[in-house]
Amino acid sequence: MQTSLNGRHALVCGASQGIGRACAEALAAQGASVTMLARNADALEAVRGGLPGEAHHCLPCDLSDWNEAASTVQAHIDAHGPVHILVHNSGGPKAGPAIEATPEDMLAGLTPHVLGGQALVRVVVPGMRSEGYGRIINIVSTSVVMPIKGLGVSNVVRGAINNWMRILASELGPDGITVNNILPGYVGTERLSSLMAGRAQRDGSSAAEVEAAWKSTIPAGRFAEPSEIGNVCAFLASPAAAYVSGVNLPVDGARLAAM
Ligand code: NAD
Fold first, then answer.
1. What is the 189 CA–ligand 1 centroid distance (Å)?
2. Is the Cβ–Cβ distance between 228 and 23 less than 8 Å?
3. How far is the CA of 18 from the centre of ligand 1 (A)?
4. Ligand 1 centre from 64 Cα, in Å?
């Protein structure tokens, strides 16, 4: 099975921590040179220092400023060559019921994920086409399949990314470019800790009680390690996954299946 990413250049967004960081680590472990994008330069440098191999780069920028992000990535491609693998990932939108979200909250959620993603795709696809190799992997959520109570804005954003992924997979398939969504379940990251604390505050319970309640919904009985998402990302990025496209892939310890 061909899983080596030697000679491939990956751009991983939101790579300073959590799932994005785990994806960067998994791709580098398979031999890719990894360019990591997030807002905090120091945090990115710290991750870069721990990656195997030498040819890794940091691109500090904000996906919410999509024009700036696109021109930063274009300049990087001009200097270092085409991107073969795009991992589109960003922070989760503000939590809370959908009915309490303002239009501005909706826009703030849609901006880095949908508009930022579209801006980056338009920059990386020409190189993928000319290389005859492209992998676009979106880090989304199981709310694509089943909306999650209390994550109103996020559910809307994920629904948009679902159809965006499917139409791109259809349009780009003839160019040897696959487009897929990874749907993480509960993953032990900074984002999850803050969601548990927020839920505990809203419910008048403790974070430990929220954690136990959430784990009870997962047949695997535990949260995922970030590396378990990274490993799936590295597989989808590889030559072995050339015929997997247009797919929403839950990586959730069978939580969706048990609903
Ligand atoms: P995280 O908050 O730990 O990390 C998010 C990363 O994105 C960080 O590197 C952050 O700096 C970066 N980022 C945030 N906003 C950005 C912006 N505007 N521009 C550039 N970079 C930005 O989150 P995580 O837990 O790793 O989750 C990643 C994604 O997966 C999120 O969309 C989250 O909602 C989703 N998700 C997470 C879980 C989970 O349990 N952790 C479950 C399902 C879905």
1. 9
2. no
3. 7
4. 13
Query: What domains can you pick out in the chain, each with its CATH number?
Result: 9-185+228-250 (3.40.50.720), 188-223 (no CATH)
Q: What is the pLDDT along the chain (259 residues), one digit of tens a residue?
A: 999 999 999 999 999 999 999 999 999 999 999 999 999 999 999 999 999 988 999 999 999 999 999 999 999 999 999 999 999 999 999 999 999 999 999 999 999 999 999 999 999 999 999 999 999 999 999 999 999 998 999 999 999 999 999 999 999 999 999 999 999 999 999 889 998 998 899 899 999 999 999 999 999 999 999 999 999 999 999 999 999 999 999 999 999 999 9
Q: Specify the ligand 1 atom closest to the Cα of 93.
A: 34
Ligand 1 pocket test, pick from 189, 195, 217 with the greatest ligand atom count within 8 Å of Cβ, gives 189
